Each structure stands twice: as C-alpha cells, then as structure tokens.
Amino acid sequence: MNRIVRAMLGRLAGMALVLVIVATVVFVIVRVTPGDPAAVMLGSDATPQDIADLRSRMGLDAPLIVQYGQFMLGLLRGDLGQSIFLGQSVGQALLARAEPTFFLTLFSILIACAIALPVGVLSAVKRGTVFDQIVVTLTMIASSVPSFWLGLMLIQVFAVSMGLFPASGYGGPDSGFFERLQHLVLPAVALGVVNSALITRFTRAAMLDVLGDDYVRTARAKGATERRVVLKHALRNALVPIITVIGLSVAMLVAGAVVTETVFGLPGIGNLVVSAVLRRDYPVIQGTLLVVAAIYVLINFVVDMLYILVDPRVRL
Amino acid sequence: MNEPILSVQNLTTAFRTSEGWREVVRDISFDIHAGETLAVVGESGSGKSVTALSAMRLLPKDKARSTGRILLEGRDLLTLPEHQMRAVRGGRIGMIFQEPMTSLNPVFTIGNQLAEALVLHRDMSWKQAEAEALRLMERVRIPSAGTRLHEYPHKFSGGMRQRVMIAMALACKPRLLIADEPTTALDVTIQAEILSLIAELQREENMAVLFITHDMGVVAEVADRTVVMYRGDMIETGDTPQLFAAPGQPYTRALLASIPRLGAMAGSVTPRRFPQVDAATGVATEGAQLPPPPSATQPVVKVSNLSIRFDLPQGRVHAVEDVSFDLHPGETLALVGESGCGKSTTGRAIMRLNTPSAGEILVGGQNVAKARPAELRALRRSAQMIFQDPFASLNPRISVGAAILEPILTHGLLPKPAARERVSQLLEQVGLSPDMATRFPHEFSGGQRQRISIARALALDPQFIVADEAVSALDVSVKAQVSNLLMDLQAQRGLAYLFISHDMSVVERISHRVAVMYFGEIVEIGPRAAIFGNAQHPYTRRLIAAVPVPDPAQRGTRPAPPAVEPRSPIRPLDYVPPKRRYREITPGHFVMDEAAA
C-alpha cells in the first residue's frame, strides 16, 4: 500500500502543476483573442460607457499581472468568475448542468464495457472462428458509425415509432430523478455501442497478446480450467491496455458532450459551452475549459492508479 | 522391472501448416520408470519440446494432433477426457519450463501461484494451501520464504524463479516431472544448484524425470538413459554412459564431437579452432592451432578505472566498478561472469552506447567519452559490435545485402557499385554465397544470421569487435562453426575481439586472455592458460567447477556446489566501494586481493 500512497502523492503534485499551466494558458487565450473582449461581447451597438463598465466589471482595466494574480487567487477559492449572461457564477452554471453530462458519460461507458469486455475476451479465446470473424466485422462497422446517426436511428425506432423512451430533452423542471434519467437511455445506448467497438478491439488484441505468454502455459500445465486460465491468469495481465482505452473513451465522451448534447437536446455542460461560445460569454468558456481539463487530468490520474493496482511491476 | 511411470509408444505429432499437416515428431517410443531420469536431447527444431508438450496435451488442439499412445501409469493420456487430463496436469505430471523469467504470472504473488496448484488438486482451502506453499518454498531452499511468499515474481532472480517453478511442479507430488530446458536460461553456477536440487527431490519422491535439453554436458550429469532426437526422429537411445562411450549413429557421434569440453586446451598457449565434424560419419578432426598474435605495440583499446553506476529509487547499482584492461591487436580478451556482473555494460561503454560515471576508455589513443561527432564516426568505424540474438539484431524488412551495404555507404567508404562488390566479398568471407544478398533475414537460420551480423560488422574493416554473447544462442555444432569463423577472421585481419560470454568452454577455445567479472569488478585477469589452469580467485574456481562435464563416468566425483546466497547489487547512494588491490601471480596474471576486500 505504501507504494500506492507514494505514487498517488507524486501524481497529485504533477496534476496540480498541470492545472496551473492549463489555467495560465486559458488566461492567456482569452487575453490574446483579437479585439477587446468587452466590446466583442456587447456587440456593435454598445456605447463606450457600456464597454468601459463591462471592462471594469471583468477586471480588464487592471494591469495584466494583477489580472493574472486575481484570476489564480479566484481559482484557489474555487471562484471561476461570473457569467455575463446567465446572471449566476460560472461555478453555479456548471453545477446546474453537470447532472446529465455526468450520468450520460457514466451510462455510456458502463454499456460500452458491458458489451466490450465479454465479447473481446471471447473473441480472442475463439480466435479465427466464425464468432471471432463476426465480432471483427461488427466492431469495424460500429466504429465507423457516427454516434449521433445511431442516436437518431434509435430515436426514430424506440421513441417515435414505439414510444418507449422520450425523444429529446431532459424533462421539465419538476420531473423526478428517474424520469430525467429515462431521457438518457437512448443517447447512452448510442454512445455505448459506438464506444464499445474500440474497447472490444483493444480487449481482443490485448488478450491475444497474453494468451500466448509463458505463464498462461504454466497455468495450463498446473491443471487449471480453461475458464480460470482465461479469466484469472490472462485477463488480469491484459487489463493495462484495456484500462488505457477505457480511460481514453471516457475522456472522449466528456469532450464529445458538445456534439451529443446538442443532438439529443440535453442541458449539460456541452450545451452550456455551445451557448456560451455563441454568446461570447468568456468567463463561462474559460471556466468550462478549465473544468474539462481538470476532468481529463482526473481521468488520467484514476487510470494511473488502476495500473498500479492491476500490475505490481508498474512504478510511477 | 515393474511397470514404467510413463510409456510413450509410437508418438507422432503433426502441426497444421498452410500446406496441410506436417509431422514434427515421428514415431517416438520410450519408457521412464520411477526414480529414473530420461534425457531427450537434440538441437533446436529436433522436436524434443513438442514431445513433452504432446505428453501434457498442451499443444493447441486445432493446430496440432498426436497419434500413438502415451501411457501414464497405464492410462492413455491421448484418449483421456479433458477434465481428467486437467487432474493429470499439475497433479500426476509436474512441468517446468525453460524461461523462468516469463513462466510465472507477473500480477500474482508467488504464494498465490503456488497455492493455486494445491487448491486445484489437493482439496485444500486457500489458507491451508498458503501454509503448504510456505513449506514448499523452504523445501526448494528459497531464503526468507515467509516474507517472499507475499512478493511478486519480478522481485525474484532467474534462479529463484526456477526454484519457485520447481516447487509449483512438485506441489502435488507428481509421479513424473517434465523439465523442458530448465537451466538453459540460467547462469552456470545457478544451473549446478538447480540440477542438484532436482536430483535431490527426485530421490526423496522416487519420481520419474523427463529431462529435455540441448546440452550434452547436462545430459551427462543427470540422465540415466538418453534419447537423441534429430529433425523429429528418434536417432538413438540407450543408457547414458554407453551412449557417450560408444555412440551408434553418426549424428550422435557428431553431436558428442562438437561439444566444447573444458580442459581440452590444456597445454596449448594460443587459441585453437573447434574440431571439424563430418556430419555423415560423425568423425572429428582436431582443429588447427592459431598463430600467436603479433607482438603488441600499442593496445587498440585501453580501459582505465572504468566505473558505471545507475541510480534507482532504492539505491545505486555499481554495474561496473574500477575496471581496467588493455586489448591488443590480433588478440581476444574474454570477459566472463554471470548475468548482471557488468560484462555487457563494459562492452557497451567502449562502443559509447552508455555513459561511464568515471574512468577513461581509449580506442586507438582516442578518448571515447570526449570524442566530437566527427571523431566519433571514425571511432565507430574502427569498433564494431555483434550481439547475442541473431533474430533480433537484423531488421526484418531490410535485405541482408542492404544491411551490410548500409554502413559502407553511411561512412562513404566506397561508391555504390564498388560497395556492392564488397558486400559479395564479405558474404563469401563469412561462408555464405553472394547471391544471398537479396534475401531477407527470416529466410536464414540462426547460425547464418550470426554470420550476416559478422559480415555487417566487418563491412567497415574495423580494428576490433565487441562480440556480446555472439555464439551463446546457437546450437552446439553451429556454435563451433561460427567460433571457428571468428578465429579465422582474426588470423587473416589481425582483429582484436572483446569476447563477452558466460560459456566457459567456448571462452577456453577462443581467447588469448580472460578477465573474470563479479558484481561489476574484475576479480581475476590473465592469460587463458593461467585462468583455466591455475585459477586463484574463489569465484573463478566456482565458475569453472560449475561447468557440466560431458562425461557420465565423472558424475558424482565432483563435490556438490555450495548454494550461494544471491547478493543484491543495489547499494546505498553514499556507498564508496573499497579500492581494490591486485596480486600478480605469474607475469600478466592478476588476482584481486581478498585480504583487502
């Protein structure tokens, strides 16, 4: 356990550094955008007085170094700034939209793994059989299907024709938790299926790799059942690349929320970003970028920790 | 005699290939009785491992099929249902493999893997099994077994891992132990320990042992009876002493004649070629003595007080510590010692493939570490390297001719047409035909590839070559041929070799001088005859004594090797190695002063 604690502390320090760099980059990007952000935000019919007001509200009239200091200090307090249009803080805006994004990502990746792990393992064990060939073909097709197209098809069949699930949106303001979650079923299935293709392929390849290893032969020579050989001795060794690709998939799902949430009309973080960009709500863009970057870093951290748990040889 | 434990009758195993079924083992029959050791010996591709895997039914069902009968205590394993076969594997037959480094599962503790075998066959709870696992580890003499039980395989040395494999194979008191090249990957001192451990456990349990090996020395040490295999056929079988004394078949005679024998060089000052063996008759003609090297003026390589250290989170490894030696034109200096002793690290430092922490390396008077890019290019011309693995050291996508051509063109030595001409000459010199230049590495055997590597090293007409275990991976007859080639090239070109090897019997043939390394230091250096005939340092003696003697008559006459506790090479960061002093025994023969150690 000592090994894990030490690695965790090292990684956490690294994460903090990455986040400081990300925050600095975000700060710079907003400042080097051509034109005066205040003027750009307010549009062409703003008076110079309006612009000057907004500039001082955003702190843009202070020297750059002071602005940077204030920005970073704010971050330390968890203050991401004020939205220009929403009348709430960026933090509040993000929190209010976090639920659909979080659950959509969670369900998608669970569905993807539920499909990919058994199918990938079985496909490797039955390498070269008809089953394996079907799996290889299907994963190729599934990975070339855009998730929004699959989503639209699912909506057509299960929402429009059969009426089993809602077609779009996230329920009204007073709908219950489970009612809201119902809205996520079709998008999660669409994303899950598309993401399962890549994970299946990685699982299959990783398993094929380790099934030829010497210790797998040792396990068989010990008299272990084939089930035990595959699920205990081989799979555990194949997990490192599988965890890597699952981590990547989660990260892609978060980043892809911009598209999916637009297609399915979900009021999540992706949706927030899109509207913020359209309205040039710089603090919101800035805050969301930071939060998404933080999520990326967090996913990487979790993946690294899983490596250590899975493989005793890993040193970070 | 009573019923044999294992009786293999007319076993034929075929593999599925694109051209249909191809027989890789044909019509093999042998018996092994309780308490007996049968060796199956042969070169690579002879089908000896396939025979063992057929008996365990560990070959993939869709790609291999076996016919004949394999009777274990009267039951035919080839017709046994799979669930009964599982009870045989690990229960009635234990098996250990060649590669201890990869044969244990890296993600489970040693204790878990040992206990698993017990839980599978002996109806134990995991708790009982762990207690028994501890007992097994003590039985194979793993030090501090109690704590090591909870460690993972990567913390174990190769020898210790093979002990774990033996413990695992013997966990359920099998009637038969199949040992597939169990010591091939191990150092010779460790090999001696493992062999005596297997023999001891066999006596206690009255087990039958099927011992698969390519090493006739090991056969002579362990086997009661021997089966000789060649390209899937059983060539000859018989009691080991008889087989060694009066081999019936030419192939067996050839195999026995090609074994490098330690002590064959007594009384000879310069290296001598390996005997030439006629494959058809098995008759050997003793190799010619090589002329002495030209009396040296300037050393081509001068290594002074070389130290190479690596820092790890746990401490510092003194991979090479205060090593000094000269290498003269036309001379072979062998660097011997077991894995991890720093011999390859030293060789790589001379090629500037790593960075020394201290000391100086002069190649042709030029300081290697301080060479500027242009000087380094010149250095690289005069110094070449040949590696151990002929399969990994040639790029599979580059034709052999292009691989040899590349260094010539890179250094701009010759225009392209002349360079091609040179490639043809080089291929001829290493005993290959010039029209092979257009072929790719996978079309060649291991020995041919090593010849190609030598041709590539010669392309720049170097002054010296670092040969890092250059013949270690080759079959015994090929090993002799390639060693002879190296000696011929040396005589023709006045090449100097730094011959890095753990194989003492090859070293005895090929070298003028020998340096023995142990934990990063040279413990003894001197003329070859002095090192082999008058070894002074205890480690040198242990190293020479551990080499198996290919003579069954001498079995048991040598004392069992003392089990030496493996020492950790990792030192604290502030460790200052003591300054060593050397005593000169005879001119040029130095031994580290143990009193100062």
From TrEMBL, chain A:
<keyword id="KW-0812">Transmembrane</keyword>
<dbReference type="Pfam" id="PF19300">
    <property type="entry name" value="BPD_transp_1_N"/>
</dbReference>
<dbReference type="GO" id="GO:0055085">
    <property type="term" value="P:transmembrane transport"/>
</dbReference>
<keyword id="KW-1003">Cell membrane</keyword>
<comment type="similarity">
    <text>Belongs to the binding-protein-dependent transport system permease family.</text>
</comment>
<dbReference type="Pfam" id="PF00528">
    <property type="entry name" value="BPD_transp_1"/>
</dbReference>
<keyword id="KW-0813">Transport</keyword>
<keyword id="KW-1133">Transmembrane helix</keyword>
<feature type="transmembrane region" description="Helical">
    <location>
        <begin position="12"/>
        <end position="32"/>
    </location>
</feature>
<protein>
    <submittedName>
        <fullName>ABC transporter permease subunit</fullName>
    </submittedName>
</protein>
<feature type="transmembrane region" description="Helical">
    <location>
        <begin position="284"/>
        <end position="310"/>
    </location>
</feature>
<feature type="transmembrane region" description="Helical">
    <location>
        <begin position="134"/>
        <end position="161"/>
    </location>
</feature>
<dbReference type="GO" id="GO:0005886">
    <property type="term" value="C:plasma membrane"/>
</dbReference>
<feature type="transmembrane region" description="Helical">
    <location>
        <begin position="102"/>
        <end position="122"/>
    </location>
</feature>
<dbReference type="InterPro" id="IPR045621">
    <property type="entry name" value="BPD_transp_1_N"/>
</dbReference>
<feature type="domain" description="ABC transmembrane type-1">
    <location>
        <begin position="98"/>
        <end position="307"/>
    </location>
</feature>
<dbReference type="InterPro" id="IPR035906">
    <property type="entry name" value="MetI-like_sf"/>
</dbReference>
<keyword id="KW-0472">Membrane</keyword>
<dbReference type="InterPro" id="IPR000515">
    <property type="entry name" value="MetI-like"/>
</dbReference>
<feature type="transmembrane region" description="Helical">
    <location>
        <begin position="181"/>
        <end position="199"/>
    </location>
</feature>
<feature type="transmembrane region" description="Helical">
    <location>
        <begin position="238"/>
        <end position="264"/>
    </location>
</feature>
Automatic annotation (TrEMBL), chain B:
<keyword id="KW-0547">Nucleotide-binding</keyword>
<dbReference type="Pfam" id="PF08352">
    <property type="entry name" value="oligo_HPY"/>
</dbReference>
<dbReference type="GO" id="GO:0016887">
    <property type="term" value="F:ATP hydrolysis activity"/>
</dbReference>
<dbReference type="Pfam" id="PF00005">
    <property type="entry name" value="ABC_tran"/>
</dbReference>
<keyword id="KW-0472">Membrane</keyword>
<dbReference type="InterPro" id="IPR013563">
    <property type="entry name" value="Oligopep_ABC_C"/>
</dbReference>
<dbReference type="GO" id="GO:0005886">
    <property type="term" value="C:plasma membrane"/>
</dbReference>
<protein>
    <submittedName>
        <fullName>Dipeptide ABC transporter ATP-binding protein</fullName>
    </submittedName>
</protein>
<keyword id="KW-1003">Cell membrane</keyword>
<dbReference type="GO" id="GO:0015833">
    <property type="term" value="P:peptide transport"/>
</dbReference>
<dbReference type="InterPro" id="IPR050388">
    <property type="entry name" value="ABC_Ni/Peptide_Import"/>
</dbReference>
<comment type="similarity">
    <text>Belongs to the ABC transporter superfamily.</text>
</comment>
<keyword id="KW-0067">ATP-binding</keyword>
<dbReference type="InterPro" id="IPR027417">
    <property type="entry name" value="P-loop_NTPase"/>
</dbReference>
<dbReference type="InterPro" id="IPR003439">
    <property type="entry name" value="ABC_transporter-like_ATP-bd"/>
</dbReference>
<feature type="domain" description="ABC transporter">
    <location>
        <begin position="301"/>
        <end position="544"/>
    </location>
</feature>
<keyword id="KW-0813">Transport</keyword>
<feature type="domain" description="ABC transporter">
    <location>
        <begin position="6"/>
        <end position="256"/>
    </location>
</feature>
<feature type="region of interest" description="Disordered">
    <location>
        <begin position="550"/>
        <end position="575"/>
    </location>
</feature>
<dbReference type="GO" id="GO:0055085">
    <property type="term" value="P:transmembrane transport"/>
</dbReference>
<dbReference type="GO" id="GO:0005524">
    <property type="term" value="F:ATP binding"/>
</dbReference>
<dbReference type="InterPro" id="IPR003593">
    <property type="entry name" value="AAA+_ATPase"/>
</dbReference>
